[in-house]
Amino acid sequence: MRVDELDVDEANGVEGASGYLTVDLAALGRNYARLAKMVAPALAAAVVKADAYGIGAERVAKTVYEQGCRHFFVAQFVEAMKLRPAVPQDARIFVLNGLQPGNEDICAYEDIIPVINSIEQWRNWSRTARRLGRRLPAAVQFDTGMSRLGLPPEERPLLAEDLTYRSDVEILFLMSHLASADDDESTQNWEQLEELRRIAEEFPGHDLSFANSGGVFLGNPYHSALARPGIALYGGAPSNATRPMEPVVRLDVAVVQTRTVPAGTKVGYGGIHVTAKQTRLATIAAGYADGLPRSLSDRGAVYFDGVRLPIVGRVSMDSITIDVSALPEGAIGIGSLVEVLGPNRTLEDVAREAGTICYEILANLGRRYHRQYR
Ligand SMILES: *Cc1c(COP(=O)(O)O)cnc(C)c1O
Fold it and tell me: Counting atoms of ligand 1 from 1, which one is nearest the CA of 96?
C-alpha cells in the first residue's frame, strides 16, 4: 500500500513503524461493564476528556455506547464538538470545564450539555433558554472542597433565589468532584460527601453525580445517580487498595540499533551512566517526545520475552537505550519489539518509576506510534 492511499489517521501505520500502541477495545468494554455493574442501579458515564486519556475518544465512546453508556464527559467545548457527530443523538455529552461566554447558542444548537460552574454561567444559560424559547439541559457543579470548578458556597443562595422563578434550564444532575478518592483512608472523601448531601437538601428533587473511578471503589454512598469513571475504564488502578482493572493499552517499541561496549563506557546524554562491565546495549525508537518521561532516565525497564531490560542513561527525545545483557546473545536485533507497557509492565509500574501517576503516562502517549484497535 502506498502512503497516499492511507487515510490520515493511518499514515503512521506503514510498515516499519517504530512503535505500536495496541488498544484492546474488548477489555475496555468489559471494564465499563464491570464498573456499571458495581454502581447499578446508578448509571455509569464515561469520561473521555483529552481524547479519552490519549486512547481515542471516538473509538472509546462507540465501544462503551454499545455497552449501554449514554453519558459522556469531556473537558472542553471543542472536544464535545468533535465527539458529537461520532455518537448517536441519545448520547449526552457534558463539558466539564463549563459554559464559556459566547458558546451558549452553539451548545444549544449542537446538543452539547454544559456543566454549569458559576452563577454567571447559570444566568447565561437561563437567558439563552428564554431567548430560544425552549428548555435547555445542564448539570450544575458545586465546589465541595476542591476549590477548582463549580459554584462556590457563597453562590448557592443566589442559585436558590433564581430557582424560585420558573427556569427554562432543566437540571439533569447536581454534581461535584472528589479530590482524594484515590485514597480510601482520606477523611476528605467523607467531608465532601456530607457537603454534597447538604447541597442536595438545599436543591431537592435532582439526581446527583459524584464518583470518579476512585469514588466507584469507595462504595455505595458515593455512587448516587451517575458515576463518572475515567482512568478505570482505561485500565488504570483507581487506588492502591482495589483489584486492578483489565489493561487496555499495550505499547511495543522497535529496536533501531544494538552494540556491545566494554566496561567503563558512558551511555547517553551527560554520560550519567557508565557501564560496570562489558555490556550489550540496544537503542529503542521512542523517547520523551513519545510520552516516555525523561524522569525514567537510568531507572525503569522494558521487557523482552519476559526478561527485564533496564533503561540505562538519559531518556532522549526520540530514543532510549536499554541494557540487553540478560538476553541470550543475538536474541534481539534491529526491528525487534520490546514491551514498554504490557503484561510485564503496568501503567502503574511506569508511573511509579517516572515519579508520576498513571493518568499522566496514559494521556501523554505519543502520536508517532502506529495505533491499532482490537
Ligand atoms: C477527570 C474527571 C473524572 C474522571 O476521573 P478518574 O479519576 O479518571 O475516574 C470525573 N469527574 C471529573 C469532574 C473529572 O474532571
Answer: 13
